[in-house]
């Protein structure tokens, strides 16, 4: 029996609930599997205060000790990989094997950054006679980090690992649709003894939380992964307060297929890569520019491989592609395909929702798509 953890906030070293919640939906069944708590202004004030105190303690912790604690948390995450992967599959829909690979990838981020914690080297710069400049790197301060829903564990891991390795405290707002991965990260650090206030986790209404945290004088860095439009908005909020930002925004990855390549291998690998995580990756190959001499061969190969993709619920054996992550994605993909066909594109395969329950959509290949089609400019 696969169970889903109860989502909670984590502030100042303790879990807490709130009186208001948002539904968490299993995209394979559309069943509500939990409620994510909505942080109030008082909760966010508590998180800011905790991050302030936590930073002062953590910045004085020797890099070797920081690295050891981070590695201990990574070891715990590896030992819990099946439990975490099951929760990710329930909330996100991706196949269990992909969810487990994501957990391992997240643990690797922590292990890598634990090593980097030991390598915050400075520099000595020669100058005039009797003068030399010395550069020391110092942790910038409390970080407000925002992670997306497409990788519920590895994306929060990137934010948390870098901040903790650098000696910063962090307030993480993870995705409300997929909170379990971030919760497991926090639990691992709690279990290995991370001091209170160093790592805080909040959920709620995204616009409200970003507005509240980013404008706070406590926050010294904003880190965000998500769409370009939201990233531009958050950058504007931060710029008004001269707060630095780290932005990892959307992608619309083109693939150029030359006439001298192994066409069949390129078609097969492109199809597999495009359908990984149901295509919901900023690096998913989405647009293919194919030399005319091999166009028909490539189109046939990628169409056949996509059409053979096994689609189903993520916990089912042999499934290669799960549902789209939420109803918004289903509506967006449906609209993009309709627009492409309406502007001269041709469906080589797919193009329709599968069934009436769950956010399943056929693996889809569009041929001869016009440059005017939205799908040529918008990340699907």
From TrEMBL:
UniProt xrefs under Gene3D superfamilies: Aldehyde Dehydrogenase, Chain A, domain 1, Aldehyde Dehydrogenase, Chain A, domain 2
Keyword Oxidoreductase: yes
InterPro entries per record: Ald_DH/histidinol_DH, Ald_DH_C, Ald_DH_N, Aldehyde_DH_dom, Aldehyde_DH_Superfamily
A Gene Ontology BP annotation from the UniProt entry: gamma-aminobutyric acid catabolic process
Coiled coil: none
Keyword Oxidoreductase: yes
Domain called Aldehyde dehydrogenase: residue spans: 20-379
GO molecular function: succinate-semialdehyde dehydrogenase (NAD+) activity
Alphabetic keyword roster: Oxidoreductase
Pfam families per record: Aldedh
Family: Belongs to the aldehyde dehydrogenase family.
Protein name: Aldehyde dehydrogenase domain-containing protein
Natural source organism: marine metagenome
């Amino acid at each position: 029996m696969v169970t889903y953890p109860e989502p909670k906030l984590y502030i100042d070293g303790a879990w807490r609930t709130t009186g208001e919640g948002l539904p968490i939906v299993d995209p394979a069944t559309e069943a509500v599997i939990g409620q994510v708590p909505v942080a109030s202004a008082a909760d966010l004030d508590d998180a800011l205060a905790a991050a302030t105190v936590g930073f002062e303690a953590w910045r004085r912790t020797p890099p070797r000790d920081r690295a050891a604690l981070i590695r201990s948390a990574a070891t715990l995450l590896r030992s819990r990989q099946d439990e975490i992967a099951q929760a990710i599959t329930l909330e996100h829909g991706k196949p269990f094997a992909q969810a487990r690979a994501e957990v391992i990838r997240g643990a690797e981020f922590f292990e890598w950054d634990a090593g980097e914690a030991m390598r915050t080297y400075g520099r000595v710069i020669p100058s005039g006679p009797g003068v030399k400049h010395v550069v020391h790197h110092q942790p910038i301060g409390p970080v407000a980090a925002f992670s997306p829903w497409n990788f519920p564990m590895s994306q929060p891991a990137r934010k948390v690992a870098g901040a903790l390795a650098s000696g910063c405290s962090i307030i993480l707002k993870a995705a409300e649709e997929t909170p379990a991965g971030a919760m497991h990260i926090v639990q691992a650090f709690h279990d290995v003894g991370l001091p209170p206030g160093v790592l805080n986790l909040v959920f709620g209404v995204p616009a409200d939380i970003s507005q509240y945290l980013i404008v706070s004088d406590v926050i010294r860095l904003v880190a965000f992964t998500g769409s370009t439009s939201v990233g531009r908005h958050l950058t504007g909020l931060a710029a008004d307060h001269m707060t630095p930002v780290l932005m990892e925004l959307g992608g619309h990855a083109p693939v150029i297929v030359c006439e001298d390549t192994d066409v069949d291998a390129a078609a097969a690998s492109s199809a597999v890569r495009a359908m990984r995580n149901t295509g919901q990756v900023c690096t998913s190959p989405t647009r293919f520019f194919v030399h005319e001499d091999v166009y028909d061969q490539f189109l046939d190969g990628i169409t056949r491989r996509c059409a053979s993709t096994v689609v189903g619920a993520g916990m089912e054996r042999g499934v290669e592609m799960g549902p789209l992550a939420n109803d918004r994605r289903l509506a967006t993909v449906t609209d993009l395909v309709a627009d492409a066909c309406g502007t001269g594109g041709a469906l080589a395969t797919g193009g329709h929702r599968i069934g009436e329950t769950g956010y399943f959509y056929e693996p889809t290949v569009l041929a001869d798509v016009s440059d005017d089609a939205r799908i040529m400019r918008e990340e699907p």
